[in-house]
Specification:
- The complex is a heterohexamer, with three copies of chain A (112 residues) and three copies of chain B (442 residues).
- Chain A has two helices and seven strands.
- Chain A is α+β, with helices and mostly antiparallel strands.
- In chain A, the strands form two sheets. Chain A has a four-stranded antiparallel beta sheet.
- In chain A, helix 1 runs antiparallel to helix 2 (67-80).
- In chain B, helix 3 (34-66) runs parallel beside helix 5, helix 3 runs antiparallel to helix 9 (242-262) and helix 9 packs parallel to helix 11 (307-321).
- Chain B is built from 16 helices and no strands.
- The longest helix of chain B has 33 residues, at 34-66.
- Classes of the chains: A alpha+beta (112), B mainly alpha (442).
- Chains in contact: A-B, A-C, A-D, A-E, A-F, B-C, B-D, B-E, B-F, C-D, C-E, C-F, D-E, D-F, E-F.
- Strand 2 of chain A pairs antiparallel with strand 2 of chain E.
- The structure holds adenosine-5'-diphosphate (ADP) (3 copies).
- One adenosine-5'-diphosphate (ADP) sits between chains A (7, 35-39, 56, 58, 86-90) and F (26-29, 62-64, 101-103, 112).
Chain lengths: 112, 442, 442, 442, 112, 112
């Protein structure tokens, strides 16, 4: 199993979720984060003082998928979340050793 | 707010009319009886008073909105506490100190009686012969709110780094002594009043005085950690809650009708009623002028409107018109307010350059705009000399004594929280209570 | 609030003055005409009424700030709904039940007419011969707000676990019957009034009555899940939004000037105007005393000030002075309020020890401090016996009937949400609407 | 609000009484002197005016609570700015345009003088011979607040997608020209007034007019991105802060006593005082009726109460009673308000079906309920024809001109932010300032 | 060492933390997330428009434990967080290559 | 590639970010969490009831770095975030199998 961590633009969340559902993804963890990256760096004024906006609001998705589903999920995310403009985000893939569904006690790929 | 004067005039007018020996019909259809005058004047004080009381909530919300969330509970606590302290200090010491009457001065024109507590009219005015123009209780209530306002101004400037207790002790001294003594020079008919200084509702006596105390505090206290970097850059520390800051501004705007309108001190003649109306209108338009000036100016200078500056601008407009809300035309009042708004947009960054860290902009709003408003009285009423002397003497007096007190407090008990406590937020170190502990579903 | 009595006195005074056969000039310069008295009294009711109406917003904000965020929308809904229900129930039943007049009693001194809806003066007082001291509409408006306040007190105590509809049904019964019947014993000149009970603006009739209903509810309902652990420890469940709680307190503080000041019921003589002023001042200083007492006490006892206790303390000060805001001196009022503040700091943990879960502290603030305030009337006015009888009979009557109603509601429809719904929050189960759905950028 | 008429009547009544040649005693004990009438009328305007001013805060909080958090700062900025703009535009153009007097019309009954700025009574009414029924300043202050209210209605509908500056420009035109011209037809005693149209405090003249301008804006602007999906489903975009929305509603509720009560325009006779009291009571009960109707209806239709609908319902009740808050009985007023509440529950989804995206429900609350209220006047006062003509002409006039202006603004500068800016939120693109930047400990 | 990521119902947090403490877990990262899963999908009304509630508030726990403690920790979480109703959550296990305690500079299992 | 998860004291965020930028780190995910650890455990009073403060506000940083940059990044974080007082936080290192930049479709180390 793989843990896919994706950081995307907030307004893309619904679209990405829908598309992931279509390919059979049944669970997600969604969190709001601040992203630091190339997209930042423009300046704003606050009460006459200039400052650099470093952190941009982003959505972080985490989903655990079966190994053979992982490429498809990554593809779906990268296609759907893409606007072509800077700050579209990243996808990272990590290996998951085990999974467990608390309600049923199922483990492994059945738990996803 | 020259109380006795006003009453005199009111009475004279009433008497004159009576003296005209009108026929009974004319009489009853034109005169406002002494008793009715008394009731209406009292009512003005009460309505004005509760509106100014409401400003305490305005300051609390404005400041809670402009500090970072880790300091919000402390800021709220300071605001509730200072208002309560003012109520008691002004009762025990301040009120009679501020209005010594003819014979009450300890140092004629400069210092009233310190050991003298306020009392009210007896219940039902029982055994009351002498009929003044209004009830003492309504006057006390109204004047107390001005005293509390002065203290409210201080709390915003020194936010996010000052310990709770030194602030509360300073508040006691400010509301019991500093403000009442300074105000007595004018409203107690002391020396400033005698030289012809004019400050209708207190651009200087309340607002610039409060700002002077705040400035002294900010100097002794120093800026927030990380606010001014060594390389000269300024780190903005955005306020945590814009709706609260906006709500606070609207509350203050509303309360200001009581602040300025009530300072007419009389509603018992048609002239007074018309004047209170002028004051309401001018107060409102000055706020509008201040807000729009700041809005346009930040758009031009920064390419984007800065809401906090617009809010500060509205308040600066209100402060500016406070010294003379009656004489100007609507257009004049708008202009006076607009200049207040411009002042704020320029002095807020200026103070930052001087490394004076004023969290909510109170020194600019209440101090600089307050001085502007007081001097601007000379446009309509002349007497620039007296205006300068009055403004300077009040500000310097309050500033120097405040500096002394802050310094003493700092020496005795330390007025600033530790570095770590400041970084973690005062709500955690001073109170152990978060302002927004969840915003979650736990 | 002995309406008829007051009017009588007002009229007598007016008549006496007239009877003196003053010269025309004296007349017109001293008298306040009957019509002017009527208008001023009416105005006092209207201003007082809108200030008390504003307290509904105060309760809503205070409670929204003191519950956890998962229950905020429900708490707001309850507050808007209860105020609306009170308006209609008091109109259809409560008002005439509360003021039966001489001949309206069903059970003389104990029970007014239930089948009798309120009506107003005709438009323009057309065809109106008899001139009372104020307009009926203004009186209805003012009295209604007191009824609504009683209901507002209940909602805070039973928060975070009670279903919406049983609460609304209870509110109907409370505002249509319970409060009006109990209040009729005093303000309708029933049996309590006859034995000399005194409760100026309702420390007991409104506040302790509301708290009695709340206490009954808390008992039937039981504490929130996890509040009291088996090992005897208490789990604090911190309020979600301190600025809202503080705003709510300031709103209540402001509204209380209408609550107590308006209860003078007359503004048409200089004595009344002076009395209203005394009341404003005393009301304010009692709140200040309560807030500072709680502040100092929590600092001493807990080493850190507890803002929620300071807010409760201010409110307890207000409740305490409500039974007699006129007679005490400023100093006396401060003390009465301060004792109210002390009471709260001690009774809030006491109730917790009794496992009575009062989410916002309403039983302590409105109940215990209300009883204290009512008994304290004996200091200035004597008659401790009547005070005890009055307080006890009102509280017991409301408590027992409330207990019955809550029990019946629980039996019929269940008043408590399911365990799961409580854990997930009432906003999700009862309303399906989060109070703060984003605070994010999605 | 037929000012001159009212004054006339007041004066006639006063004169009639005088003419009765009462004895001196009777005179002084029954009459209210001309001067007292003047003062009391002025006082009504001032109290009414500051209460309506407070509604500006209500709109700001309501809208800040009902937009998503990424658009809150912009919404607040719009509200502060529009109120300030109204103050100045109404002073420079609107006031005299709205009240042309007999000889001021450019186009008799249709268009007043555009080049004419408002002035106030001289200080102290110096050299003032002619005694009107109230001070000009108080009237200006009161009327200005109505103008600002009209503009406040617009900002909510077009939230979350309109650029700041086009909105501000529209506000200038609305408050300087559109509202004053339309209002002059009735309150300036223009052609609508002549045909017998009745709209006591402005269900149509203020509320439906504001809603018409909003509707035009919503049409030109189009719905928010993603609001209406192609498959016909509607995406709810829940408001970010329910306590703010509730606070805003309570503020508006309170302010409405000034809105309707002040529109009696007189407090100087016992009849007026009683009428103002009726109006307060009816206003309150109509809000209660509206809130409860929406509460019950959403419970029945959706199985769960919808707080935002209850808030809208209360406001719709208030709007509905505004056209005639005096004539109905309490029961009648409750019913009129309740129908307003029902209207909202049905028209909000209806507008969604028409793909007209009204973020806060202003078109339903102020528009549809406003029309309902205006037509309902015919129940108590007859004259359905005039009511229909009046409502239609005002709404169509404001709607068409607004459509034109919005269209022109869109052509010239574009009124809508870019797609990306809308998705990221207006606070980031328009202002660069978050409403809640932390809610964290950083 | 293992990183255990657990998503649980919010009201279970305290109980789970206490039980984990009992078996010697000394540190946790707790965050509030929105969970998408089988539990979602019921509809609500907002201003007359029906919509599907997709995201349910959840708590995400992260803890790094020694390899030999991992099974026990998973067991404790799954037992304590279980209500048997849908939406009880998941546990995922990932391998951690290294750990460091910032205060002391300790690394590896000593850092946990 | 490595995923570095660091939990630090909130007021250290800016300094850590700046120092990381200096060694070439170009992206970060920042989230606010509540930390449970040794630092907690002091008691506070709320309305007269004593309670233990278990959760302390912390900042969680996540950054994916090239393998050869990982040691330097860890070093920078641990040095900059250190105050020497309890609660300074932890750094955990996990292996990342793949990365993707949504905007460009680049994968692997190029995507970071
Ligand atoms: N090396 C990284 N490790 C963790 N998160 C990263 C990394 N690089 C970028 N991110 C996240 O991805 C987001 C988008 O990256 P950014 O550099 O702004 O634009 P782009 O995705 O177009 O290259 C950032 O806001 C940040 O949260
Ligand atoms: N494959 C997955 N990857 C990540 N998180 C998941 C996954 N499946 C479920 N979750 C999380 O677990 C939570 C509970 O899952 P859900 O399907 O609702 O019920 P259950 O746990 O009873 O199967 C979801 O809200 C989601 O946050
Ligand atoms: N085993 C762990 N797994 C995950 N997070 C941990 C672990 N231990 C500590 N933490 C996190 O690190 C933070 C700091 O740890 P703490 O024990 O308080 O102090 P120190 O870092 O000085 O040892 C905690 O608040 C917690 O969030």
């Amino acid at each position: 199993m793989k843990l896919i961590i994706a950081v995307i633009k907030p307004f893309k969340l619904e679209e990405v979720r829908e598309k992931l559902t279509e390919i059979g993804v049944q669970g997600l963890m969604v969190s709001e984060i601040k992203g630091y990256g190339r997209q930042g760096g423009h300046t704003e004024m606050y009460r006459g003082a200039e400052y650099v906006v470093n952190y941009i609001p982003k959505i972080r998705l985490e989903l655990v998928v079966q190994d053979n589903n992982s490429l498809k999920a990554i593809e779906v995310i990268s296609e759907t979340a893409k606007t072509g403009k800077i700050g579209d985000g990243k996808v990272f893939v990590l290996n998951v050793e085990d999974a467990l569904r608390i309600r049923t006690g199922e483990t492994g790929e059945n738990a996803i | 707010m020259f109380k006795s004067l006003k009453i005199l005039i009111t009475t004279i007018i009433a008497c004159t009319l009576t003296a005209k020996a009108l026929s009974a019909e004319e009489l009853s259809s034109e005169l406002v009886s002494n008793h009715t005058v008394f009731i209406l004047n009292t009512l003005l004080f009460l309505i004005g008073g509760f509106l100014v009381m409401w400003m305490a909530a305005g300051f609390a919300m404005l400041e809670a909105g402009l500090v970072r969330s880790k300091n919000v509970t402390t800021q709220l606590t300071k605001n509730v506490a200072l208002f309560s302290i003012a109520a008691i200090a002004y009762y025990l010491v301040g009120y009679n100190l501020m209005y010594p009457g003819e014979d009450g001065w300890w140092l004629s024109g400069y210092l009233g009686p310190i050991l003298s507590i306020a009392t009210l009219d007896p219940v039902g005015l029982k055994g009351f012969d002498e009929l003044g123009g209004y009830s003492t209780g309504s006057d006390f209530f109204f004047q107390l709110m001005f005293c509390a306002t002065t203290a409210s101004i201080v709390s915003g400037t020194i936010a996010e780094r000052m310990k709770l207790w030194p602030f509360l002790i300073f508040t006691i001294l400010l509301t019991a002594f500093l403000y009442p003594i300074a105000a007595s020079w004018q409203w107690g008919e002391g020396w400033l009043y005698k030289i012809g200084f004019k400050d209708f509702a207190g651009s200087t006596l309340v607002h610039a005085a409060g700002a002077s105390a705040a400035l002294a505090g900010a100097i002794i206290l120093g800026p927030r950690l990380g606010k001014y970097k060594e390389n000269g850059t300024i780190t903005p520390m955005p306020g945590s809650n814009m709706p609260l800051a906006t709500l606070g501004t609207f509350i203050l705007w509303l309360g200001w009708f009581g602040f300025n309108g009530g300072s007419q001190l009389a509603l018992g003649t048609i002239g007074d009623a018309a004047d209170v109306s002028r004051i309401f209108t001018n107060t409102n338009t000055a706020a509008a002028g201040g807000a729009l000036a700041a809005l346009i100016l930040t758009q031009i200078m920064y390419k984007k409107i800065d809401l906090t500056m617009v809010l500060n601008g509205a308040l600066a407009g209100l402060v500016s018109i406070t010294a003379e809300p009656l004489a100007p035309s609507i257009g004049g009042a708008t202009l006076i307010g607009a200049i207040g708004g411009v002042i704020v947009v320029f002095t807020v960054p200026l103070l930052d350059k001087l490394k004076i860290d004023d969290v909510v902009g109170a020194i600019s709003v209440h101090g600089v705009a307050g001085i502007w408003g007081t001097l601007a009285v000379a446009f309509s009423n002349g007497g620039l000399g007296a205006q300068i002397i009055g403004t300077a003497s009040i500000c310097i007096f309050v500033f120097l004594l405040s500096l002394l007190i802050w310094y003493a407090l700092d020496t005795i008990m330390g007025i600033r929280v530790s570095e770590e406590d400041e970084l973690n937020g005062l709500d955690s170190s001073e109170l152990g209570m978060d302002a927004y502990p969840d915003f979650s579903k736990s």
